[in-house]
Amino acid sequence: MTARVLVTAPPMLGAISTFEPILAGHGLEVVAPAIVQAMAEAELVAIVPRVDAWIAGDCPVSRRVMEAGLGGRLRAIVKWGVGVDNVDFAAARELGLPVANTPGVFGNEVADVALGYVIALARQTHLVDRGVRGGAWPKPAGLSLCECRAALVGYGDIGRAIAHRLLACGMRVSVYDPAATVVGPGCEIRVWPDGLDAADVLVLACALTPATRHLVDARALARCKPGVRIVNVARGALIDERALEDALDGGHVHSAALDVFETEPLPAASRLRRHERCVFGSHNASNTIHGVARASHRAIEVLLELLARSRPARTAGGERV
Q1: Which are the contacts of 298, defined by CB distance < 8 A and separation ≥ 6?
Q2: Can you list the alpha helix ranges (DSSP code H) found in 26-156?
Q3: CA 16, 45, 105 angle in degrees (round to 5)?
């Protein structure tokens, strides 16, 4: 029986014709469902038992899904990309199911988008574009980045790449990351939320954990400088969106550039949609031709390593499949 690998990472799926021959060369048949952002748990419970391996995107890699997979053929999981907040590693260890991710594969790509968002909010280029398209000739006064300070939350691969770009624009950077003991020239380490009142831009680039969920809540926003710009290229749940909506409504937050949301795609009823100064993405900051190739090749390498160390599943009669 041919071994099968399920792919549910949308960027990899978008270029799946490139990677199918590579996987086929290792004896793996690709299962590539049509996905907007993520499959629901119930859908995964139905499909995962029928595959030997899984390259997952932002779908729930939950205990229920893994147990269902182990009841069938599943032998290994690779989380495509960096973020692993959707993976229950404790359950994976308890169940003896190997799970890994692909860290450090697109820090520069995400940092490029973060800088683009910072510039857009500082200079309101998106509003100028919309105005010109509508027949107007708007001239909003922006911020000079070389006169501004950024509060950067997270100083891993992506955070360091963002800091490098902000510093190149002449910005001063305050870093918030309990794991950071040394930062580059032009950066200073701060303890959250001290110093938020001095930041013109707040940039989120940290992992989503129980400690960082709703890190940016009503209290944190109240401590921010009036007119602050907020950029999130990490995970939507780092921000309490209801609190952000209130802060935008009241004018304390000038604008936000959000590549990620608590619920994805962004619900049609979200109050965030009413704020024209805001910029929205589609959880797409890592999606470049080069970044997808890098992450996907690494995901395949890791998957093959995991499969080589695992034993094929057995049927109820003891026959290997």
Answers
A1: 102, 105
A2: 41-47, 63-70, 89-95, 107-123, 125-133
A3: 40
* CATH class of the domain defined by 3-105+288-309: alpha beta
Write out pLDDT tens, residues 81-106.
999 999 999 999 999 999 999 999 99
List, by residue number, the catalytic residues.
235, 264, 283
**Cα dist. 100→53, 77, 107, 201 in Å?**
12, 7, 18, 34
Please, what is the end-to-end C-alpha distance for the chain in angstroms? 6
* H helix count then E strand count, the chain: 11, 12
Quote the strand ranges of 113-215, DSSP E.
149-153, 172-176, 187-190, 201-204
What fold, for 107-280?
Rossmann fold (3.40.50)
- Among all chains, which residue has been given the structure tokens 């080589």? 308
Domain ranges of the chain: 3-105+288-309, 107-280
Question: Is the fold of 3-105+288-309 the same as that of 107-280?
Answer: yes
Reported as half-sphere exposure (CB side, CA atoms, 13 A), residue 274 has a value of 10
The dihedral built from the CA positions of residue 44, 30, 103 and 114, taken in this order, carries a sign that is negative
The answer on pLDDT for 313 being more than 80 is: no
Which tens digits make up the pLDDT trace of 148-192? 999 999 999 999 999 999 999 999 999 999 999 999 999 999 999
Evaluated on CA atoms 134, 125, 111, 234, the torsion sign reads: negative
